[in-house]
Design brief:
Layout lengths: L1 H15 L1 E2 L1 H8 L3 H13 L4 E4 L5 E4 L12 H7 L5 H7 L2 H14 L2 H4 L2 H5 L19 H10 L1 E8 L5 E14 L2 E8 L2 E6 L3 E10 L8 H14 L4 E7 L4 H5 L5 E6 L8 E7 L2 H9 L5 E5 L1 H28 L1
Antiparallel strand pairs: 1-3, 2-3, 4-5, 4-8, 5-6, 6-7, 9-11, 9-12, 10-11
Organism: Neobacillus massiliamazoniensis
Pfam families: HTH_11, WCX, WYL
Protein name: DNA-binding protein
């Protein structure tokens, strides 16, 4: 509704001080022309919205103006009482603070909503942990948080993916939780980089501070970073036919393989499926694990590789049996 959108514009301008037409249109998911019409409506209603021209321009409210729009809708209140990830709150050391804030919010809302607050918590729960999760040790996580809040530089001792340790002086910009895994986003040598928190073996908090980039937006950076990462992931596609015995298991496949396409079963009851792996090695290990229940259609080179691996396993245990027979 337009009235809701006009209120949202006022709240956004009060919070962010100045926003361009494009930014408002993106936040509210409308066209820029709609934003211009909304601004005309606000001006006509006596709201002091001002347009500043130029590169650093945008819409703003006059400094003296503030609105006391404190009324909240049922769904807005409900959204505040959806349970967060307690694991991430624990990592951040904010579990107790979250609980106390929840109690304060509960005390401030209308009594008609207070009755249903506990019921909301019992209906939606967010769990970011994996089914079989290995707990990652984050030795310096508190130091990372302190550096971020205080804009302090850090000296990191970081373990790269290849096992090599490197020293890095960084300007920490933020922390991001991907599932239950934390990443430090930091500026290093004029380039923004991602550091897995569990690989930071030590972090020295430096006395020197830094100035955050004015145009840095953590959420936007992370979204573009992950999209770039996904785009550059290696792909190794395999066409297979799957036995009816394991077709349901394949549909609930693990993290190392992606199902690109499942076709209807053919005459012998087997199902053609196109799988995608990161590497040939992952494809070999995955397919060999199903024995004679998966038939490789293409690539042909993978057939020979699987055959050689299976032969090597047979030869290994054949030698083991021979040794045991000689000793018995």
């Amino acid at each position: 509704m337009r009235a809701d959108r006009l209120i949202s514009i006022l709240l956004l301008l009060q919070h962010k001080k100045k926003l361009t037409t494009r930014e408002l249109a993106k936040d509210l998911e409308v066209t820029e022309r709609t934003i211009h019409r909304d601004m005309e409506a606000l001006s006509a209603a006596g709201i002091p919205v001002v347009a500043e021209r130029g590169k650093a321009g945008g819409w703003r409210l006059l400094k003296q103006y503030r609105t006391n729009l404190t009324g909240m809708k049922a769904n807005e209140i409900k959204s505040l009482f959806i349970s967060p990830s307690f694991q991430l709150l624990t990592d951040l050391g904010l579990t107790k603070d979250w609980y106390e804030a929840r109690q304060k919010i509960l005390a401030s809302i209308p009594s008609s909503f207070q009755i249903n607050a506990d019921d909301i918590w019992n209906r939606i729960h967010v769990d970011t942990s994996a089914w079989r999760q290995s707990t990652e040790k984050m030795e310096s996580f508190k130091i990372l948080q302190q550096a971020i809040w205080e804009d302090r530089k850090l000296q990191l001792n970081y373990e790269r993916a290849d096992g090599e340790y490197v020293e890095r002086d960084v300007n920490p910009l933020g922390l991001v939780a991907k599932g239950s895994t934390w990443y430090l986003i930091a500026l290093s040598k004029d380039q923004i980089r991602n550091y897995r928190a569990s690989r930071i073996k030590s972090a020295l908090l430096m006395s020197e501070t830094f100035t955050r980039p004015n145009d840095f937006n953590l959420a936007q950076y992370w979204n573009s970073s992950t999209q770039e990462f996904i785009k550059n992931l290696p792909r190794y596609e395999v066409d297979v036919e799957v036995s009816p015995i394991i077709v349901q298991r394949i549909k609930f496949t693990g993290r190392f393989v992606q199902i690109l396409k499942i076709e209807s079963p053919i005459e012998n009851g087997w199902t053609p499926i196109k799988l995608c792996f990161d590497t040939e090695q992952e494809a070999k290990e995955y397919i060999l694990g199903f024995g004679n229940q998966i038939k490789i259609i293409r690539p042909n080179t993978l057939k020979q590789v699987i055959f050689d691996m299976a032969r090597a396993v047979i030869d290994f245990y054949d030698q083991e049996n021979q040794m045991e027979n000689k000793m018995s």
